[in-house]
Amino acid sequence: MLRFAAISGAQVLKVRGRLLFTASVITGPVSNVEIAVRTRNGYQLLHISGGHERLLEETGFELLRREDTSAEQAEIARRLHVARATHADGLRAAQGDTVFEEENRFLATVEHLARERRLSHIVFLARKRV
Q1: Based on the number of CB atoms within 10 Å of its own CB, is 122 exposed (0-12), middle (13-18) or buried (19 or more)?
Q2: Which of 1, 34, 104, 107 places its Cα 20 to 30 Å from the Cα of 74?
């Protein structure tokens, strides 16, 4: 999937055009339970550290910047979790207990994995080579 996107990006971008994307990158041990909770919202392709860089190189891109924004992701998940606790009664009424608890478990897992840098959130900036 990423290979296709990178090849497509290389075909669409002008020479020296820039490509910006974010990705979840496995940067430590992650259990199958954590992966199941973290990817519950649909298809996600997780790469090990270095995988995106290798694909960018193979598809004609020069990596300009790689920034780990895991701390920010963890903080956003924490704040959402706190907000959900503040409005728990209304959310439970609207979502039902099962969905409410699943969403809380998801946010707790996102925060935990990001804070421990086991599933990191990375921003990539690349440029199409000449």
Answers
A1: buried
A2: 1
